[in-house]
Every structure is written in C-alpha cells, then in structure tokens.
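Severity: low
Component: inverse-folding endpoint
Summary: output formatting inconsistent between runs
Steps to reproduce: submit the following structure tokens with default settings.
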C-alpha cells in the first residue's frame, strides 16, 4: 500500500531539487486560491504531488509530454497501490494530464482547475522568472524570452478570482523585474 507520506518522500527523492519545493508551493497556492471552494482535498493533494513526476529523470520519456507521462505513471504505477476510490483516482489522473499551461483543453473538475491555476501561478512572478533562469540554458536572452512567453501564455487565462488577482500582481512584478534586468545589462543578455 502506498500513502501520501510515501509519495511526498518520493517527490523529494526523485524531484532533483526543484520538484518537491515546487510541489510544496503549489499546495500552498491551492490553499489560497481554493479558499471557500468545495473540493476533494485528499485527491487534490495526491494530484499535486504526482503532477510532474513525468518530468523527473526516473520516469521521463523522450518525446512524451510530461503531463501525459505523469498521468501514465500515476494511473498505472502509483494510484492502484493506494486506497483511493476508482472515482478519486480518475479525478487525479485527469487533473494531472490537464495541468500544463500549454494545454488548451478545458478543465474537467474543480480539482483539475485548482491544480492548473496553482501550477500556473508558480510560473509567474519573481519565482517564475527565477525558475526559468535556473532551468537554463546558460543563455540569458533565451531565459529572458522564455519568461516573456510565460506571461503571454498564461495572462488572461486564470478564472478563479483570487488566482486572477495573484496573477495580475505577479505579472506586474515580472515585467518590473525584466525591465530592471534589461536596464542593468544595457540590454546585453
Ligand atoms: Fe508540469
Ligand atoms: Fe508543476
């Protein structure tokens, strides 16, 4: 049997330094933007921990989108070993598959909505920029451009009022930060 504590530990072990911290921030964001909403907290916690496992070296597969791969791993290897109901497992698998901001399909449950909007918020703001630059490559212009595509890819797509408010604030901070970066570097990145 597999429980949330073991999944949490594996996220720490397999997540290469970024996975666990990102997941912990997403959980915090879920709490903030989900305040006052009715959702299955247990199912969503599983979904948050498992949502990026398909990007971890142990499970990543070249050419397979990480969200889809995370779904496969969760659905076939992890969730069947938990005591979650079949219905909860299905909700978790769907939420994982639909979380990525490049996926334009609509959400299918409140849990999938909360996971994706919390995940997107962690791609915005100063934390969002820092994550892009940490990811690399060591070419600042590439990372700068990628930070801009985060803004254009996510702006205007959040639907939960609290998430919209946070997104607006974080996008303003991103623009400010990128502006400062450009000033200090004389535009030479
Ligand atoms: Fe992801
Ligand atoms: Fe993520």
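Observed output (run 2 of 3):
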């Amino acid at each position: 049997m597999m429980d949330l504590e073991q999944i949490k530990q594996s996220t720490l072990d397999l997540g290469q330094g970024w996975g666990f911290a990102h997941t912990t921030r997403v959980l915090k964001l879920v709490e903030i933007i989900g305040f006052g909403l009715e959702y299955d907290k247990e199912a969503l916690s599983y979904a948050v921990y498992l949502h990026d496992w398909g990007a971890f070296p142990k499970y990543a597969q070249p050419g397979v989108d990480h969200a889809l791969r995370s779904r496969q791993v969760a659905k076939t290897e992890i969730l069947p070993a938990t005591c979650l109901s079949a219905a909860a497992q299905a909700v978790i698998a769907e939420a994982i598959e639909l979380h990525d901001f490049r996926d334009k399909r609509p959400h299918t449950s409140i849990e999938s909505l909360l996971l994706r909007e919390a995940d997107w918020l962690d791609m915005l703001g100063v934390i969002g920029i820092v994550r892009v630059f940490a990811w690399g490559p060591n070419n600042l212009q590439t990372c700068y451009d990628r930070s801009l595509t985060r803004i254009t890819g996510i702006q205007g797509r959040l639907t939960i009022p609290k998430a919209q408010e946070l997104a607006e604030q974080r996008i303003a901070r991103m623009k400010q930060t990128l502006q400062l970066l450009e000033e200090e570097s004389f535009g030479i990145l």
